Amino acid sequence: MADSLVEEIGQGQSQGGKPPILLSVVADSYHIIGIDLGSSEFRGGIFDLQGHKRHSLNLPTHGQVGDAALGLVYALIDQLLPLASSPLLGIGIGTPGITDTQQGIVYEAVNLGWSDLSLRKLLQTRYDVPVHIANDSQAAALGEFSFGHGEQISNLVVLKAGSGISAGIVLNGRVYAGDHDSPGEIGHVTAVPNGQLCTCGRYGCLETVASSRAIIEGAQALVQTYPDSIMAQLAAAAGGITTDLVLQAFEAGDQNVQALIADVGKYLGTAASHLASILSIQHLIIAGRLARFGAVLLTAVRDELNRSALGRIAQNTQIELSALGADIVILGAAALVLSRELGVV
Q: Phi and psi for 334 in degrees, rounded to 5?
């Protein structure tokens, strides 16, 4: 209370003694920056201490990697800082790849071209505020647990599918970190033996058949095969294909695109069946940019789970789309700061 972090909001119901005094976090006493580095654009937001988004900003990556990608992180934070109207409690980062959340080191982020990057040290030195870093799927799981389905349950898996694919796991109300602080890295597990070359250098990874890149490549093939299709017409008008354009063709009723998304859902369903069978978790949430394909994707995931997993496991696994949309990782990054700095999540 002396630091204006909490305030009295009244009295609670007596349980036989003196009624308790209720406290609440003062929302705008501090602000938090949450960052998502796990898609084709870097996303950032300003949040208050109750998780309300005050401002947001997105910067396209244009495929930048290495030092150029790090410079884009700086540019995003530099532009967000003036938008915070209260003192900054800290910066939370959800980054793809194998990450040491305690040391703040990104050991390997294939899609960003990072290796052994001391991201937290670099950001704390530059901005002189607390910085907390997690894998983007772990951040997504924390976001879902803190602000989504997790308000009613203590165990869940978030299957995050976009430019990369990974799974964030919450067990007994805590984000599971595993022995090596990198659980859920399923995007580079082989899905198609001797399949396409992946960005990691191996062949047939799940990301080659069920990521944003896979959808774009599939749509490009459809344009060549069906030059009069809705997808081909939209691509010709736009001069190129993005996942947003594929979504537009999908929503316009292009049946070939819908079949493409169903195939992607089948591969994600196989991953979901493995997660459900190994972890025995009832709630599995689909998040990331691919979740925008809605019921068609979700049905394909459920159908493959029912086909691949034991009957009782499939029956007891509830698969849903996240209601947090594109903000799931930046919300989780903000929750990470709240948890580490105040212990309130």
A: -65, -40
Identify the CA nearest to 331 among candidates 66, 90, 55, 36: 36
Angle of helix 212-225 versus helix 230-238 axis, rounded to 10? 110
pLDDT in tens, 62-73: 889 999 999 999
Regarding whether 160 and 138 lie in a shared domain, the answer is: no
User: How far from 16 is each of 9, 13, 253, 338, CA to CA, in Å?
Assistant: 21, 9, 62, 33
Calculate helix-pair angle for 255-279, 243-251, nearest 10 degrees: 110
Amino acid at 33: I
Name 345's Cβ contacts closer than 8 Å, sequence gap at least 6.
Answer: 142, 146, 335, 338, 339
Number of domains in the chain: 2
One domain, residues 166 and 260: yes
Q: Which helix (H) or strand (E) holds 36?
A: strand 31-36
Averages of pLDDT over runs of 10 residues in the chain (345 residues) are: 80 82 82 91 93 93 93 97 94 92 90 93 97 93 86 86 91 83 83 92 94 96 96 94 95 97 97 93 93 96 95 93 93 94 78
